[in-house]
Amino acid sequence: MGVERIGATFAAREKEGRKALIVYLCAGDPSLEVTAAAVEELAAAGVDIIELGVPFSDPVADGPVIQAASTRALAGGTNLRKILDLVKDLRSRVSLPLVLMSYYNPLLQYGLAALAADLAAAGVDGLIVPDLPLEESAPLREKLAAVKLAAIPLVAPTTPAERLQQIAAAAQGFIYCVSLTGVTGARESLPPGIAAYLARVRETTDLPLGVGFGISHPEQARLLAPLCDGIIVGSAIVRELHEGGLPAAVKLVQNLRQAI
Amino acid sequence: MALPDSRGHFGPYGGRFVPETLMPALSEIEKAYREAREDPSFQRELKYYLEQYAGRPTPLYFAANLTRHLGGARIYLKREDLNHTGSHKLNNALGQALLARRMGKKRLIAETGAGQHGVATATVAALLGMECEIYMGEEDTRRQALNVFRMELLGARVIPVAAGSRTLKDAVNEALRDWVTNVRTTYYLIGSVVGPHPYPMMVRDFQAVIGEETRQQVLEASGRLPDHLIACVGGGSNAMGIFYPFIQDTGVKLWGAEAAGRGLNTGRHAASLTAGKPGVFQGAYSYIVQDENGQIKPVYSLSAGLDYPGVGPEHSYLKDSGRATYVAITDAEALEAFQLLSRTEGIIPALESAHAVALAMKVAPGLSQEEIIVVNLSGRGDKDVQQVEAVLQEGGKNHGC
Known about the structure:
Chain A: It comes from Moorella mulderi DSM 14980. By secondary structure, chain A is α/β, with parallel strands linked by helices.
């Protein structure tokens, strides 16, 4: 459970000489039923970890694809409570790590004390909060630590060395390396300087490194794989699911899986 | 103790809630600002532009006719509407643009609601020869078409934002996304005392010139401090600017006028302090208009500059501590004040500032003639005349008249 399950997943892939494939879904886009089906089918297609996005009205770290998905999910009445019910229901059928990705305010309004207990009870393994930097994250990290859930931090190409060390010291599960300066969304090429940046992060921690933002093609994933432990794909999957339905999303996952 | 603390907190409020990519940039701005604040050459240059370019100090005008009409306290108007570009926004835009130049940044971005901050930013960009892009909600570009043209005339590019409610908050989101992408070359010139630390502190400091002048002017005019300061509050920069130099003077009562829109009970308002609750939004912990799931709710005000679901964290602190009192003013009350000030004093206020005048209309009649009220007249109303004409022609029936 929690930190352990995430660690075991990365360890298993490493043993096979492969990388973890991490996929983001916007929970409730187009409905929670479809999200549930997507989790099961994508897991069967070879995804190692799924990030379930909690939709937010003002997602400042996200590009147009996830913004639109969040708007659709909110219009359908999705909220954190319903997403926890969904995870609870899925847990009897899937064993891969499930982490939530949420902006801070929906968590704060839920109540941090109740949140940690409810996440653990539902079977969530960790939490990624894109607008909660290290300096403000202690209250949430303490609550998550008490139930052995992973507080997964983000680092960016702009993060200086000393700060990388502080973030890594407080991290659990894996480190989410934002590949570029920018918001989420598919890009055609890899950002310049990515190898040196990931090498810098690698020096500061023994935790697995997941790389995300801008990755949409299997070829990008293949090129990045030697530099990290996991590849995170969000907008591209959300777009496939929206435009081509579940079969299209499964196909992209299969192609990504083969690449890494 | 001086607020904010070293991590940008005003009591529980404020802080830095932004994507990691921006954290080093915020530290860099804070460091540069703290150095500039202590640097006499920076202060000298800012003072030069405030005096010779913006036209400061702005007058503190005794509104004899309005005072007589309301029949209570003596009302003074701090004439920020006479600042170059027509509002207090230039004070902050000048300060931050000089800071950006000192930091070697060549590109300015900003959000704007009514267009006043956008115009101020486009103006300083023209003055200092910097590239400038302004994010503005599509709905606001329609409401404030004249200001869009002004910004373009000044050489800025105006980018309409079609996301979300297409107003000020969406313009801030889009500006933040631009900044995350171009953080190495770009300075984000935030227009109010909102956002992550150090903006609420820095914008307050640049606007505090309003309160410093007011203090000196009211002492010269009447030999004592005022009893009441009244300002409108959207994000709250003109209010913090006039309040701040008086915070320690507990005999001076501080009043903020928020936008009640069509009425607090209609759900169509923008009153974060009187009808919202604390949460994290656009970089800081403060009062916000939100639903039970923590989603930001649509807000509404006739005034594009007050149409914002958040408020500066220092105002949240002043509210909780009881140091300041916040009152929500409806569209109808603001429209009445807009007309009253025009007729009694020959001064057409901005719709934002009309909210402060409306609050003065409530407060003044109950006070003795010995008491002194200073209303911060944060901007002039030329930009609003067309919109007000349209509303008055339809009989104001949708605005609770």
